[in-house]
Amino acid sequence: MFVPMRFTLGKEERLKSKKLIGRLYEEGKVIKVFPLRMVYIQTEHTSKFPAQVGVSVPKRNFKRAVDRNRIKRLLRETYRKEKHTIYEAVDKPYVFMISYLARDEWKYADIEHKMKKLLTQFITEITQDEK
């Protein structure tokens, strides 16, 4: 059903659909591991990958676009490296959005550690929901 996993984050793995994003924030469940927050929903999507992901950084916390873009790059990179944990654990398609909540920029290693925690917490939560 799903394509084999590669360590890339291509166009089809990114969440772009405005309808899905709207539905995600209306119906989605939330997991927080400061400074990250994940809103997720189990739904069909157009991609042949098991998950579509989007990242966001609020303009309220980072006024300059340069800073927001850098943090988004860091979030995408840490997700790209850790997505194999999700791909191995899920059998249904999921859509989620990862938001950055802190008011200052964290180091890459710290964000990477928190991303691992967030994704493992997501996996434990969806396996509990299936039981």
Molecular structure report:
It catalyses: Endonucleolytic cleavage of RNA, removing 5'-extranucleotides from tRNA precursor. It is a single chain. The chain has 131 residues and is α+β, with helices and mostly antiparallel strands. The chain has a single domain (18-130), classed as Ribosomal Protein S5, domain 2 (2-Layer Sandwich), CATH 3.30.230.10. It has helices at 18-27, 65-89, 108-130, and strands at residues 29-33, 36-42, 51-56, 94-100. β1 (29-33) and β2 form a beta hairpin. α2 (65-89) crosses α3. The longest helix has 25 residues, at 65-89.
Primary descriptors:
Ribosomal Protein S5, domain 2, alpha+beta, 3 helices, 131 residues, 4 strands, 19% strand
Number of domains: 1
Strand content: 15-25%
What structural class do you assign from the helix and strand content?
A: alpha+beta
Strand order of the largest sheet: 1-2-4-3
Largest sheet composition: 4 strands, mixed
Uncertain regions spanning at least 5 consecutive residues: none
